[in-house]
Design brief:
Farnesyl Diphosphate Synthase; single chain; mainly alpha
Length: 266
């Protein structure tokens, strides 16, 4: 697993800079396992986003493994099997994650906010749930909904940050009912829509952050990640709610200040 671990560390640092900053605050005895877990989710997501021919088979293999069936020993299954020897991974959440990947493969469109919430849970809320299982919780009954909410908040933040990129790829993750109510996605005409969506994301952050105290380890890291990601919403507001096309970006110095403040509070 040493080569896989090297890949996991490098992948996190290269493609998830905000998450990588937060990971520095994780206890050493769990940090590498978090890197490995991230590699699984990131690899599947990238295979799907890039339209790789093997994407569907790799996603199906993980879903089968999580369902208790033997199948092809893909790189993701090898990592998950290793992690499962040390943690009680919530396999239902892994199955749901794969269902979210299938939605992207199928090009599903979203009619209602409930549809978007379902998608956000599947592709990101599940990541929070599995991550919480690795970090350990005081009360799974209280921790799981909060972990799911935090993951969903981050995914909703991704959707708002990446509107223009997604449009360029022919994808829209905003509910059609919301678009009908608030109008266009064109730059300079999104303010009403973004105000509505930011309120929804902030509500999920509140629920998610309130549950961080249920974690046995990694509270500072998760609080820092939540704070840094949530700041993207503040940047969208400060930059005029999509007045100009492109991604909102939080400068590294600002991220570090937010991470330090959130970690101290945690």
């Amino acid at each position: 697993m040493s080569a896989v671990l090297d890949e996991a560390r490098a992948t996190t640092k290269q493609v998830a800079r905000t998450f990588a900053l937060a990971c520095r605050l994780l206890p050493r005895d769990v940090r590498d396992d978090v890197y490995l877990l991230y590699l699984v989710f990131r690899t599947l997501d990238d295979l799907v986003d890039d339209g790789r021919p093997e994407a569907a088979a790799r996603v199906d293999a993980v879903a089968a493994w999580a369902g208790g069936f033997e199948g092809t020993a893909t790189p993701e299954i090898k990592i998950l099997s290793d992690l499962a020897s040390r943690y009680d991974l919530p396999r239902d959440a892994l199955i749901d994650f794969c269902a979210g990947m299938q939605e992207d493969l199928d090009g599903v469109t979203y009619e209602t906010e409930a549809d978007v919430d379902r998608y956000c849970y599947r592709v990101a809320g599940t990541v929070g749930v599995v991550m919480a299982a690795v970090l350990g919780t005081e009360s799974p009954e209280r921790a799981r909904p909060a972990a799911a909410a935090l993951g969903m908040a981050m995914q909703r933040t991704n959707i708002l940050r990446d509107i223009d990129e997604d449009l360029g790829n022919g994808r829209v993750y905003i509910a059609r009912e919301t678009l009908s109510r608030h109008g266009s996605l064109a730059p300079g005409r999104r303010e009403s829509l973004l105000r509505d969506q930011i309120v929804r994301a902030d509500a999920l952050y509140e629920q998610g952050v309130a549950g961080i105290s249920e974690l046995r380890r990694g509270r500072r890291a998760i609080a820092a990640a939540a704070g840094m990601y949530r700041e993207l919403l503040r940047r969208l507001e400060a930059e005029g709610y999509g007045a100009r096309p492109g991604r909102a970006i939080v400068p590294r110095t600002r991220k570090l200040k937010i991470a330090a403040r959130a970690a101290w509070r945690a």
